[in-house]
Description:
CATH architecture: 3-Layer(aba) Sandwich
CATH class: Alpha Beta
Largest sheet: 5 strands, parallel
Strand content: 5-15%
Amino acid sequence: MDHDAQQVLWPRLAQGVTGVLLGIAAARATDFAVTVRRAYRYSERATRFERRLDSPRCRVLIVGDSTAVGLGCVSTEESVAGRIAREFPYASIENHAQCGARVANVLKQLESVSGPYDAVLIAVGGNDVIRGTRERALLRGLEAVLLRARELSRMVIVTNSANVGAAPMFGWPLNMILSRRSLRLRRAFAQVCRQHRVRFVNFTYRFQRDAFARQREQYFAEDGLHPTSAAYGYCYTVLKRRSALIHALAGG
C-alpha cells in the first residue's frame, strides 16, 4: 500500500472506530438511564419498618437510603430494622430513611429528630455512587452527618452499600465504572468515620471478594439493584459481628 493510500485509509478507520465507540457509549448511557428509572419506580412500593414504644428500654434511630428502608424485602420485618425489632422486643425503632437519599440528604433526616438514642444506624452510599457524587462533596456531607449523629447518640454506626457494579442491572462497561466509584467512596467513608471515631461497617469489596457478586440470584431483588430478604439477613449478621450494636441494645 503506497503512502497516499495509507493517508486516506487510517483516518477513515479511526473515524469508523470512533463512531462505533460513540455509538456504544450512547446506547449504554440510554440503557443506564432506563434501568435507573425502572429502579426508582420499583422503590415506590417501599414501606420502612418502624416500631415506636411509649416506655422503651432503649431507642434506635435508623436513617439513610432504600437499604435502611428495607426495599427488596418480602416483608418489612425482614429488613435490618425489622430484625433488630424482633431480636430486641423492648427497643423502640424510629426510622426516617428515604428511598433515593444520598449522604447530603441524611443530615435533614437527622435534624428532624431529638435524642438521645442508644444507637444511630446510618445506611447510605449507593445513590452517591450511581449519581456520581464528587468525593469532596461526599466528604463534607458525611462529616456534617456524623457531627449531628454524635449529638444524638454515643454509638453511631455507618454502613455503605455493596459494590454497585455487582448489581445485575448494570452491564459492561457501566459495571466497571460503578465498581471503581464504589471502591473510591468506600475509602472516603472509612477516612471520615476514622477521623470522627465512628464505627464503619463496610460492604463494598472488589468482585473477587464480594458475597453479593458471587451470589447474585440470592442477594439481588427482581429490579436487579436492591437487596433481597436473604441479603438483609446477611448484612444484619455482619453488622452484629463487626459493631457493638448488640451489646448496647442488650443492656437496654
